[in-house]
Amino acid sequence: MARFTFRLPDIGEGIAEAEIVAWHVKPGDRIEEDAQLADMMTDKATVEMESPVAGTVVEVAGAVGDIVAIGSALAVI
After folding, report:
1. CB 20 within 8 A of CB 65
2. Secondary structure (3-state) at 49
3. Cα 6 from Cα 60, distance rounded (Å)
4. Is the separation of the CB atoms in 5 and 73 below 8 Å?
5. Which of 52, 48, 36, 57 is nearest to 11 (CA)?
6. How far is it, in rounded angstroms, from Cα 39 to Cα 2?
7. What is the pTM of this model?
8. Contact 75, 60 (CB under 8 A)
9. pLDDT tens digits for range 7-51
């Protein structure tokens, strides 16, 4: 089965990074397409990230409180 790397999308004009405020999955969990993956907070808003694909979560980018740059891997499914 192919691995899909979900990269943190540009979630706001001028935003360069976002903080992980909650994970809704952990490695080994099965996730469906459009299910909540994580909540990310910028200096402007908190945004719910949804999985673009169904599959098993292989890895996540970090722990709650970590900062992830726009375009960086958020999860591998």
Report:
1. yes
2. strand
3. 10
4. yes
5. 48
6. 25
7. 0.89
8. yes
9. 999 887 788 999 999 999 999 999 999 999 999 998 888 999 999
